[in-house]
Amino acid sequence: MTLVKFNPFEGFDSLVRRMTEWMNELDRSLALNGEGTVTLVPRVDISEDKENFYISAELPGIAKEDIKVSISDDGVLTISGEKKQEQKQEGKNFYRIERRYGTFTRSFSLPENVKRDAISARFENGVLHLTLPKQEPAQPKVTEIQIS
C-alpha cells in the first residue's frame, strides 16, 4: 500500500473555475444599478451587409408596448423598457422563482453613415429586429479660393 499525502486544496482550482464561469454568466445576464436593484441586460447580435446594419435584441416575455427605441442628438441608439412581473395568484405557492423582472437598457454609438430617419424596427417572437440603412458618407465641401 502506498501512502499519499493529504492535500485539502485538491480540486479547489476546478471549483474556483466553475464558480468564476457561473459568476461571469450571471454578470452577462444581469447588472446592478446604483440603487442595488437588478437591471436586465438583453443580449444582442449586430451584423451588416452592403446596404444596412442590423441589431437583433432578445427580449423574451416583454410586451411590445413596454419597449422603447430612441436616438439621441449625439448618435446614441438606446433600447430600453421594463419586464413586468406577472400578478401573483391567490392560493398559489411558489417553490422557485428564477425568472428576472425589472428595467433594461442597451445603448450603441451609431456610425456616421447611418440614415437615422430611415431606421425601422420589428418585434416578433420575443426578438426586436432593427434595420439601420447606410448612406454614403458626406463628402467634405471644397471651396476654391481665387488667387489674385
Task: Provide key terms for this protein.
mainly beta, five-stranded mixed sheet, four-stranded antiparallel sheet, 148 residues, Immunoglobulin-like
Give a written overview of the molecule:
The protein has a five-stranded mixed beta sheet. A four-stranded antiparallel beta sheet has the order 3-4-9-8, with no helix packed on it. The longest helix has 18 residues, at 12-29. A hairpin with a 4-residue loop joins strand 5 (67-71) and strand 6 (76-83). It starts with 11 loop residues before the first helix and ends in a 15-residue tail after the last strand. The mean pLDDT is 83. The protein is mainly β and 148 residues long. It has a domain at 42-86 and 97-133: Sandwich (Immunoglobulin-like). The protein is flat, with a radius of gyration of 25 Å. It has one helix and nine strands, in the order αβββββββββ. Helix content is 12%, strand content 34%.
What is this entry, summarized?
The chain has one helix at about 10-30; strands at about 30, 40, 45-50, 50-60, 65-70, 75-85, 100-110, 120-125, 125-135.
